[in-house]
Amino acid sequence: MNIAALPNRQKLDSYWMPFTANRQFKSAPRLLVAAEGIHYTSADGHQVLDGTAGLWCCNAGHGRSQITEAVSRQLATLDYAPSFNMGHPIAFDFAERLAAIAPGPEGGKLDRVFFTGSGSESVDTALKIAIAYQRAIGQGTRTRVIGRERGYHGVGFGGISVGGLVNNRRVFPQIPADHLRHTHDLARNAFVKGQPEHGAELAEDLERLVQLHGAETIAACIVEPVAGSTGVLVPPKGYLERLRDIATKHGILLIFDEVITGFGRLGARFASDFFGVTPDLVTTAKGLTNGVIPMGAVFASRAVHDALMTGPSNAIELFHGYTYSGHPVACAAGLATLDIYEGEGLFTRAAGLQAKWDRAIHSLKGARNVVDIRTIGLIAGIELEPRTGAAGARAYDVFVDCLAKGLLIRVTGDIIALSPPLIVEDEQIDEMVSILGDALARAA
Question: What is the three-class DSSP state of 301?
């Protein structure tokens, strides 16, 4: 596709695109103009199978009329209302619905909900809550936060500090943070379906950092249960359980970043439920509104929440918030999204597709340049051998090739990620694998 082929010779100069090589993109743009079900329509009229649920967010697929109608009704009723010292009913309704399905077991759910506008905002909010909690319980020296190498927690200053992507960190200053080692181990865990056997001992890094910095300086540790944006890194068996034990032992809050894994991606409502490990805080966004309207939410335990509900009743307990916290139209989209998830059984549908998904994706083992395949829930990571002196180039070429043949994939470095909408059917999984297999065969 070239600019001349675009409707009305669309101008591309003004839009500074995020996480994009702007000059490369604008020399050969790829534009999507419509979406329905599990397909996009490109600017030249071709159907494109959505292998990534948009950007890990459109879990119920595209063009859901139930969400459209709910948004339209809300816009006609109350388009915006402030959330600072004011309220509107739909935000409280949505919080109650979320509390009912919140991460954690009955009697221990993280059922206190703080609304944000995105995953990045959710992460920075959770970090601030953690530090404020420690101060509230008399542990004001706990200001350090712990992340993990190859972790992605958005682009706020807190998120890049705990994140483990060098390109996100090298230009910008950060808050005090340290990092666990990542769990990716090709030598011992290649071509695994589900959780790998080796690597639980890497959780002991948290003990090492306690010894290095002192527990009295550490407020929280944040990890993605499954790291998505850095190439589908699945936690080894026992790893998350050990992190939970160490954090509890030292009074460190454990935060799960479930911006990607929340709302059915692994075949359970949340990854914390799937793995049976309950953190103290959970960050969400993306699937919260099916990607229709930007919104995020932080789920907090009652212990964390209640520790801040002290002092004079007219005092602000957490000096934090956003103009769009609990936005009424976003809440309407979120409520309609929950109705779809629950009505169509999408929270658990990935579990029923797991065997088919594993077989189909792992059939690519032995394909040209494939050095590893990782699957869990309805997520897959296919790792390619990099070209000498051109890391990421091979996967990018596969991305462009797949798009030309009607499949949208995501690449990070030389890792291909797949995460289709939870409404995907068996034949569409086969189509994805066929298109991707052919593109891998053509990749030089």
Answer: coil
